[in-house]
């Protein structure tokens, strides 16, 4: 089969030929139709998970994937051949990812069936980005009616976070460049702040002098995240998806939250798929391209400036 992989940590992603996977006990074999591209993918190629999980080489990239079950091990009970599914193709080992024609994955991974009302291309955009948005809001734990600032709302995670926050009854304050304003309002943002106009903390304090209830920061480093904490009222919440939340910066202001580390499970992924099927959650698709363009798209992701999700069509 064909796949996009790296031969070692730090190597450039390339198209390679590999043997088609054979299912082991508890596994299913998925013929992939689409893979969602995430910044996490190029970070894995650069060694993000080195020393944390076993790696196999060549290391097939990709976490988000959607396709049809082609075969199952005799002991599998959750799925059967022909099922359409979406899931996270990172389960215990790094290197058997979704940038491939086929992938074998444990039936107990974060996998969910995809109804006919949802395309596999759309479903492939969900696990990492929508999952991160869902878990960040869960960690923030704000009641309906609260204000939440979503920093870096114009990317894939941010656009999912805007929608999910609105569905939870929150007042959504999104940050993004001027060219994202209209689309963020369409997704449910009540206020859109252009962070290029003035320091974000300054703009927030001018609008909300008593402080906002919470922040989900998808973009800032430690210093940038810490600078925003003055705009959250004492006892509020602040979450970073980039590991930028230091406890000694949160504690003096009585803030809860911290760094997001959790991944969604199968039940949560199924909930997201259901929201898409019901029309409650839109897929913020920026581009759909051939899997052959994956190396170039990973480089573009690393350069930043995403305005939604990139999905790779497995069209070898």
TrEMBL record:
<dbReference type="InterPro" id="IPR013154">
    <property type="entry name" value="ADH-like_N"/>
</dbReference>
<feature type="domain" description="Enoyl reductase (ER)">
    <location>
        <begin position="10"/>
        <end position="312"/>
    </location>
</feature>
<dbReference type="InterPro" id="IPR052733">
    <property type="entry name" value="Chloroplast_QOR"/>
</dbReference>
<dbReference type="InterPro" id="IPR036291">
    <property type="entry name" value="NAD(P)-bd_dom_sf"/>
</dbReference>
<dbReference type="GO" id="GO:0016491">
    <property type="term" value="F:oxidoreductase activity"/>
</dbReference>
<dbReference type="InterPro" id="IPR011032">
    <property type="entry name" value="GroES-like_sf"/>
</dbReference>
<dbReference type="Pfam" id="PF08240">
    <property type="entry name" value="ADH_N"/>
</dbReference>
<dbReference type="Pfam" id="PF00107">
    <property type="entry name" value="ADH_zinc_N"/>
</dbReference>
<dbReference type="InterPro" id="IPR013149">
    <property type="entry name" value="ADH-like_C"/>
</dbReference>
<protein>
    <submittedName>
        <fullName>GroES-like protein</fullName>
    </submittedName>
</protein>
<dbReference type="InterPro" id="IPR020843">
    <property type="entry name" value="ER"/>
</dbReference>
């Amino acid at each position: 089969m064909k796949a996009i992989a790296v031969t070692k940590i730090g190597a450039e992603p390339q198209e390679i030929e590999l043997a088609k996977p054979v299912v082991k006990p508890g596994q299913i074999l998925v013929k992939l139709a689409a893979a969602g591209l995430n910044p996490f993918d190029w970070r894995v190629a650069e060694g993000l998970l080195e020393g944390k999980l076993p790696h196999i080489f060549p290391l097939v990239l990709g976490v988000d994937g959607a396709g049809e079950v082609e075969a199952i091990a005799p002991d599998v009970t959750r799925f059967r051949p022909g099922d359409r599914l979406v899931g996270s193709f990172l389960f215990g080992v790094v290197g058997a990812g979704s940038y491939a024609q086929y992938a074998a994955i444990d039936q107990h991974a974060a996998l969910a069936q995809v109804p006919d009302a949802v395309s596999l291309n759309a479903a492939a955009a969900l696990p990492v980005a929508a999952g991160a948005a869902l878990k960040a809001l869960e960690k923030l734990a704000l009641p309906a009616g609260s204000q939440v600032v979503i920093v870096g709302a114009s990317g894939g995670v941010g656009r999912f976070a805007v929608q999910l926050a609105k569905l939870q009854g929150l007042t959504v304050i999104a940050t993004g460049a001027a060219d994202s304003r209209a689309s963020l309002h369409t997704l449910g943002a009540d206020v859109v702040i252009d962070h290029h106009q003035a320091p974000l903390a300054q703009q927030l304090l001018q609008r909300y002098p008593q402080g906002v209830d919470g922040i989900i920061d998808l973009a800032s480093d430690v210093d940038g995240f810490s600078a925003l904490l003055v705009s959250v009222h004492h006892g509020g919440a602040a979450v970073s998806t980039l590991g930028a939340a230091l406890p000694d910066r949160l504690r003096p202001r009585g803030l809860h939250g911290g760094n997001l580390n959790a991944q969604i499970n199968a039940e949560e992924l199924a909930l997201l798929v259901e929201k898409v099927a019901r029309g409650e959650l839109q897929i913020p698709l920026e581009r759909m391209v051939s899997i052959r363009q994956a190396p170039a798209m990973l480089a573009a992701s690393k350069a930043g400036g995403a305005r939604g999700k990139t999905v790779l069509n497995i069209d070898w």
